[in-house]
């Protein structure tokens, strides 16, 4: 079993500043109940939870002008239960249809349900969850239920809940506490309602961003005695766990599903290969053919963006700091340049570095009229948008997510999503990508819940490769893909188990 | 510093049978001096040394009908030295020109020479080497010399020596003991002449296949007292080292350069993307457009083959045993099938699995007339060629490396290179790929030779990532590629050193 | 039988039924003024005008609930003129901004304006136009004005007018008669207001669909005495002209700009390569990677669709009736199948044939659950949508332009845009494509207006290749593309004029 | 000025100088029997015959040191006939095997044979042919025989005959007069032996380059009374025919098969897409990934080269003189430059223009060390190789077809094939491409031979599109490609015959 720490030394030189800063923020959260005043820092922390599973699909029922807080309403589902808190239980039917549509595109979870009809691998599990609440999450929750688990759920983001989906879950008996547009106080109240229950105590945690985990740490530390493990899927939440582990304060096993191979490939390479085109098209209706583009960063995201744009007839330049990735860019047919060399000539600038201030005001000053600037990488740090908030520049909002920043000489720069992530703001995350994530989460819960005593200690673990492979295999039928099985002779020759794992942990895929 | 063993568990379930068998063979080699009778097993062992650096370029001077054994000749170079043994010292001038041409395509080594003019990082190093002896190796050896080292060299393969290059090296003062067509006895005699010298004792070993290392283990174990490290580049040699390490018998640090990132990408993905086309074209003059091809295995080699053939207009099917690689194939646009599903319809079958008997007689029986079968993967095990040596089938050699195997009904299968590696038998390894390998070797030698006491123990190590990145960076100027440097602020933000390493060890590139 | 020197006979065997039928409809139009009752057939005819220049961009000001007909309003522009009829002259400012944005993406027309500052190639021209009225058309009209022409304009489609753009044109002095949502009676009234003017008679016609031309034929045949030529850009309009010419009734030269090389490539290959992805993504948010797609038809549109989807990792099958195009599909790496062979397995069906009933109810019955069906080809005939209007099937509108058609067993087919053109309904036509068309129109007008007596007779002509090349050359600066000039020696060697044309007319590009 | 109905005028402005000059040369040939002294000019003319069907495959039996001229030998085949003249009739068996292998890759001709078993469309035809004599030609000849024709054959090139194939044809009864290494006198003697026969007079001509046609014009003009037509496949030969036609001297119908769609696509786009890689690899063993390449000319050949190199990871620049092709290059993702802009930085220069002196000495002076220069376009005029024959430059032949040209400062330019066509000199033409050509020739012969009186006049014709489509359809089974048939309803709708032709003549594919 691979432990994160076994890659020691690695994390030593990889303690990025933004994580450290963030951790400071988070420690605050443990010390004092967030107040209205603390809202900015808190909502920032919340928004850093795993946005990769946040579907930008708009709620169909947002136009509701019901101003009453859900906390002040009395609602019951059709079976008479009122152990939930959602915007409007009457939206359940509409949410159910959304869930049914999502089910069709999440075949892996549906397959898990089928396989679990005899055995219930999560029988006895009491899972408390805190994630975005979308149709896809609903499919995950109902799958966990079908596998034998009891669940209670809150939202990990105050904006992302689909109210009708929450209603549908409540209607079918899930204690869900979430609505779109929660206040900060609501946010923590909902979480508390999930864990602070008479006669019910969770034994598993599924978290996205770490807020739930830390609430329990702060308020109900004794609860960890019964908890068998934590599954966490966000960069931020994972980082918090490693910090706890380092500080010797992690008192249960935790599984980092963010870094599983299958999830990473889909979150980055495959998803961005499509969303870069989609995001640019929806915002600008531009034509890609013949356009000169510079892509900053040639990691998985950059590779996806470059491949897509090259295929559409763009001329793509790449910038990189890492010589190995730089050499890959060369071998893939991209000119490797410094940003300054091409900044005057390009039509589009795309950042995918995970770094900060990759595009500076100086770069922006030198771009040509009409140049499009967007960020596919990380948070909102890559483009120095703040530097554009100066008096001599005029901002003009021309569409949703599209600003023209106008220089005194009339030059216009087209800034997308104000420098936030284009793929989340101006495109959608395909359900198939979310299916990969949800399946990974389900298997991690099963693994932790069923692991024999001693397999996992009070540490942070990667998903076992065999389970990672299983996630992949559950998605192959979607493509009518037929896997070959090793013969006994071949397995012996290769020194492999016929059922995997098939690769050493360091394999690079 | 990453140790191989830190990926523990991995190697545990990755002890392939063919390595185990081979190791048995190799142990024999330590026990008795190979005899004429032992030739088959030995030459097999030899041929398993790193064929990846074996250039198929023919010697220009092979037509020599000089039958005298070099061991029986008296030769001197122009400076009067006779401390060498080559086919014909008079071929030196021709070999020199080959070396000069190779120098032009190995800019990284030439850059190392320049940088080393002030400091001599290998001053005092006494390197004994055992590799293929080609123009590219010569550039490496002369670079090591320029960096301050003394070298003595033998061939790691009895067939691959370019005689004129060996002559050129001897002429310029390198004690080289190698010629094309050595007997088994010659082979070990040459190695012995490298190490068994009055008044000179090696302190570094550069090996390719492990024969030199094991000769010293067997005959001169005391020599290891002065040896600072071993650099090994072949799969086989690396495996031998891990066996020694496991058995507690490794008495110096060893560096596995086979698995460095840059080398792997070039040996597999980039090289095979081109050599699959080249190998097929040179042997069959076929047209790729519209052809149906099945590629068995979607690792780096398979990915390269698939990408190239797809780009040329072939219709490509993929078989896989690993669900993660299988899912990658799907997302890259290839139908994932079992071999049986398409075997009747495909025009070409390519194996890249590392496995054995992937293409069986049953498959061969079902292929259509004219189907081309070749192996890009591993050794000669992937296609069950032996099964074709039956009386009812007729073999017809139609060109060098091309056999028609004819069924009783007239059906012909086109078998390339008798199932051995197509890219080595029917294509060439570009100098640029060899430059990556040679640079990796040089840096590994420098690292081991200069490492402070205690950094490396008696174990097998991967090349430090920083050095791996350095290899890549030395090859960027070839592409006029300009790397971006982190600002201080950015480095701090990312928690990185501005000079690298830039990625954690588990990064998948 | 084909002779090199002549393409005659070509059109003989290419008189498709739908054109014949349509022509019958059109003849009706000449015979009687359309009435309310005739509306259906008429609007059908109208909708067959060149939809390729119809931008789907929504008007920003449609929410206006002003129900008064523009014909009943009294409006004046700021200069006091009331020679126009638009929805609301007060929207002029907003429309002006739209025009200014379009100007930035139509550099060829802007270049024409600049070059025309000295000479006014259209001085004296009185152009009456009937096209879609969009920001791009406005740039064309104002360019014609800058080149010296007077213009009067009506809309060729009762739905496509952008009211604010029409207002802006009216404000700056163009007599424009058009609004969104005209009745059939309005439609002809507007056209009539363009031509039936005291003291002004057109000498050039720019038409899109042929309605204007035929109105003049019917009502003011004497007007043709002063008319120097007609420029027509739609398939339908061009067909009408050939019919007139055949019948010996064409009394002025006409230029068919629909078939110019540059326009064709952009309307079909380049535009569809991007819009197929955009249209699918906006409607379904699907992931392309690994999906199985069948594209019916491998003309320019099919080639564009196939290339794009292949690049995104889809597995693409092609159907064709023409063996030459079929062989091209093979050589480009697509399996050529009959639709029946793959209909059960594909995830997406795309038609690009120009044919009718390519996808039949029988095919639809056999598709798998969730299969997406859309049309990129021609009109709305390719998919037999009517066959889905049967009682046992349920239609469910799930989004704008997206219907689920549900079979009794629960199978859902996802039908896009009800079988109408996906790229027009669910994507946008990039301004660059419209720029190519508009520039072609402008040059055709200049050519016809300035041609010496006798160059053009009463016939239909293709845009001279030299002008076609000029359109292309005006768009090269967008890409910072630098054309090479022939030396005198080279021009002589090739037998070419240094300024073109560079290719024979039969050249296939 | 171009009219839709006619492509006339086209050829008017396309009388390239090199064709005019060549024609002057050729007129000489009609005036005087070539003498030893005239050899240079003649062989030049000969070498300009259709080299596109010349396979570079070496004869396997050339090492023969038999110096006797075939004209002086007495040879009989096994049936006792001596009506042939080949190098050595005993090589027949080896040639037969070559023919049999070729048959497997020329399925279209084999299909024609089968279909012709009942009817013999060439019964009574007496065909005299003059082409390259290769295994593929043999398959064509034997197909013509199977279709009912009698044939007599000479070589169109003094170097390209495969002696063993000629022997096999002679052995099976074909009067063949050809051998490798004919003198000029031999060349015309062989042609004369084909036509000047007692009791046999040709009624069809199949020519490649026009030498046979013109020999008959000059020596046996009366023969044309019985000749039903000429089929010509080379650019040069076709040009000669148009000249004759223009001069009113063409006295039989002639068919230009060079410009048929299918043949053109395969000769240029599809063939060059593969042969550019093959030619570069075989000569230089270079790696394509990351290399900077400039391709001069973006016609079909240039498009093929660019697509292939881009796919292999090269960075490709394009130069063009034609704005339409230039715009295509932009939309396909290539930077359009003038050669001067990139000449210092590129690793490879490839010409595909059909022009002369595209690469001048000035360009060559500015290239960087190691730059590779080659010609994929036309003849040997594109690179000014003559300018490199100056005293200060040293030429060094490093391999067959590879010269290093060395500047005084040591800079080396790698010149391939001395500036002649790379794809013919250093690669092979796949049999599939030759199959397309041979099938086109066979169908043209059938058409001309069977055409009803009056269909063809004394003029030059293109292959009817229906036959062009038939050539394509005969090659579809190779790819297991399944063509869709129009329904009656669809055919009516499109105004097409169900059996084609499916496109108008001006269709651009």
Question: What would you note in describing this structure?
Answer:
Four copies of one chain form a homotetramer. Chain A is of the alpha/beta class. Chain A has 18 helices and 15 strands. In chain A, the strands form two sheets. An eight-stranded mixed β-sheet of chain A has the order 9-8-7-10-11-14-13-12, covered by helices on one side. In chain A, β1, α5 (135-146) and β2 (150-155) form a beta-alpha-beta unit. In chain A, α1 crosses α9 and α10 (261-284) packs antiparallel against α16. Residues 1-16 and 18-63 of chain A have low confidence and may be disordered. Chains in contact: A-B, A-C, A-D, B-C, B-D, C-D. Chains C and D meet through α1, α10, α12, β9 and β15 of C and α1, α10, α12, β9 and β15 of D. Chains A, B, C, D: Residues 24-82 are annotated as: Disordered. Chains A, B, C, D: Residues 268-429 form the S-adenosyl-L-homocysteine hydrolase NAD binding domain.
Largest sheet of chain A: 8 strands, mixed
Straight-line distance between termini of chain A: 19 Å
Structural class label of chain A: alpha/beta
Q: Tell me, rounded to a whole number, the average pLDDT of chain A.
A: 88
Ordered list of secondary-structure elements with their pairings:
4 copies of one chain form a homotetramer.
Chain A: H1 17-31, H2 39-47, H3 92-104, H4 107-115, E1 126-131, H5 135-146, E2 150-155, H6 163-171, E3 176-177, H7 184-195, E4 204-207, H8 211-219, E5 229-232, H9 235-246, E6 254-256, H10 261-284, E7 292-296, H11 300-311, E8 315-319, H12 323-331, E9 335-336, H13 339-342, E10 348-351, H14 361-366, E11 372-375, E12 394-399, E13 402-406, E14 412-416, H15 422-425, H16 431-450, E15 460-462, H17 465-475, H18 488-494
Parallel strand pairs in A: 1-2, 1-4, 2-3, 4-5, 5-6, 6-15, 7-8, 7-10, 8-9, 10-11, 11-14
Antiparallel strand pairs in A: 12-13, 13-14
Helix pairs in contact in A: 1-9, 3-5, 3-6, 4-5, 5-16, 10-11, 10-16, 16-17
